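U., I forgot to send this yesterday:
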Amino acid sequence: MHIIGVIIIGFVVGLIARALMPGKEISGFILTSLLGIGGAVVGQYTGQALGYYTPEQPTGFFMSVIGAMLILLLFHVFRKDSNA
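Result:
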């Protein structure tokens, strides 16, 4: 049951990150979920390593969105370079 919750939260985080980033984004459920899960991992470890919050605080959700936006930005940068 825990993995289903992670996928659902990852999907929500991915949707929020895609909505906040400018530009047209064509991706489906799986890529959006992976973006959100990856952002959650990046945001969680970065925020905790810098001492901004502990695992029990809801700030982790916002750091997950920021992490997902960072991953999405990197994805756009590398995708533009590979198409040129």
